[in-house]
């Protein structure tokens, strides 16, 4: 059940997630193995023997917590009551998010509107109008504060509530041309990120941002997306999270709409108005999208008793991986080994920097 963390517990959560090579998957596995963040921090040196482990010092994290408080930024952990319920249902959820603005909008019905940065004028007008109408119908609009469709959706929903999810820290404005919009959203809604304050996003941070965009929402609307674009990554995350994907059709002569048209051919809902979107979202009332995944509960597993088996599992898992990201369940299934053994092996491999684990659990060789 959700509970408030003490100051020391929240500090330990931050220390653990700010440790190099600890992502949402390894964070969850560490908590499940050791019971709490403090115990996991103590155990890290024994898990990573090839190189020194250097979690942030307590005073460094306390300085981050103080800085966040001074800026009006809330640091919310995944087990706390104010953490968004749909985001908590992800497996695993981002362990800690930063929120500046009106955090209460995160608990209202949300729908994402995303699309091309190089959007057409008519695409931007449609995104703006759709966001305004959905806002009037009681929905909070979520997007990524990028140029084009994202910015138009935020602007259209300033009067009703909007959420911007960033790849960098909530205080890092990108692109700079959206500085005024960034400030307006703090008043009209909220800005969210799982990155530390002051962090400048790189290309590898945007899939994490996209996963949060879809994770906050009941559905995702795509307006103008090329066949190879980050927008379609968000749509894939939405499908994996059991969210509805909707797309606006476009001209077959415009490369900016080929991704939308492909989504529709693959089963996405074709939408042309706010009424179409509301009809799709209303049908979800019967579904329980808030059912959580594995969560954070200790697992009865003592890795010290199976050290040889874990070492063998590492070798077998390494042989199964490639530079192409592979779903975690597929790796476990192909290994033909007990799930706790493979989970322990994958955790130690990620912490040692031997493999890269996506926020959704897909694994690839580095």
User: Total domains, how many?
Assistant: 3
Q: On the 0-100 scale, what is the average pLDDT?
A: 92
Q: What is the number of E strands?
A: 11
In DSSP terms (H or I, runs of 4 or more residues), the helix count works out at 15
State which percent range the strand residues make up. 5-15%
| CATH hierarchy: architecture of the largest domain | 3-Layer(aba) Sandwich
- Terminal CA distance reads 36 Å
Strand numbers in spatial order across the main sheet: 1-2-6-5-4-3-7-8-9
- The level 1 CATH classification of the largest domain is Alpha Beta
Radius of gyration: 21 Å
The CATH topology of the largest domain corresponds to Rossmann fold
Q: Shape, please?
A: globular
Helix content: 40-55%
| Uncertain parts | none
| Sheet/helix structural class | alpha/beta
């Amino acid at each position: 059940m959700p509970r408030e963390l003490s100051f020391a517990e929240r500090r330990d959560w931050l220390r653990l997630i700010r440790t190099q090579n600890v992502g949402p998957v390894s964070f969850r596995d560490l908590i499940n193995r050791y019971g709490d963040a403090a115990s996991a921090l103590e155990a890290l040196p024994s898990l990573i023997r090839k190189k020194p482990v250097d979690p942030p010092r307590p005073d460094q994290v306390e300085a981050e917590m103080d800085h966040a408080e001074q800026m009006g930024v809330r640091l919310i952990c995944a087990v706390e009551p104010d953490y968004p319920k749909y985001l908590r249902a992800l497996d695993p959820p981002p362990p800690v998010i930063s929120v500046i603005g009106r955090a209460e909008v995160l608990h209202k019905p949300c729908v994402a509107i995303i699309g091309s940065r190089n959007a057409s004028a008519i695409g931007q007008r449609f995104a703006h109008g759709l966001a305004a109408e959905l806002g009037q119908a009681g929905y909070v609009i979520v997007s990524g504060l990028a140029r084009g469709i994202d910015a138009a959706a935020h602007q259209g929903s300033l009067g009703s509530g909007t959420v911007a999810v960033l790849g960098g820290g909530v205080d890092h404005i990108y692109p700079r041309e959206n500085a005024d919009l960034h400030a307006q959203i703090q008043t009209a809604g909220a800005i969210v990120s799982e990155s530390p304050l002051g962090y400048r996003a790189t290309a590898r941070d945007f899939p994490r941002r996209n996963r949060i965009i879809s994770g906050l929402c009941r559905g995702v609307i795509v307006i103008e997306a090329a066949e190879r674009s980050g927008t379609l990554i968000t749509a894939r995350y939405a499908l994996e999270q059991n969210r509805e994907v909707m797309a606006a059709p476009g001209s077959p002569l415009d490369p900016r709409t080929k991704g939308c048209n492909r989504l529709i051919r693959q089963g996405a809902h074709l939408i042309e108005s706010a009424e179409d979107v509301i009809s799709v979202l209303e049908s979800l009332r019967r579904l329980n999208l808030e059912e959580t995944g594995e969560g954070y509960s200790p697992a009865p597993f003592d890795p010290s008793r199976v050290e040889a088996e874990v070492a063998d599992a590492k070798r077998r898992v390494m042989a199964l991986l490639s530079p192409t990201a592979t779903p975690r369940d597929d790796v476990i299934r192909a290994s033909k080994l007990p799930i706790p053994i493979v989970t322990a092996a994958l955790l130690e491999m990620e912490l040692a920097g031997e493999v890269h684990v996506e926020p959704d659990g897909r694994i690839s060789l580095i």
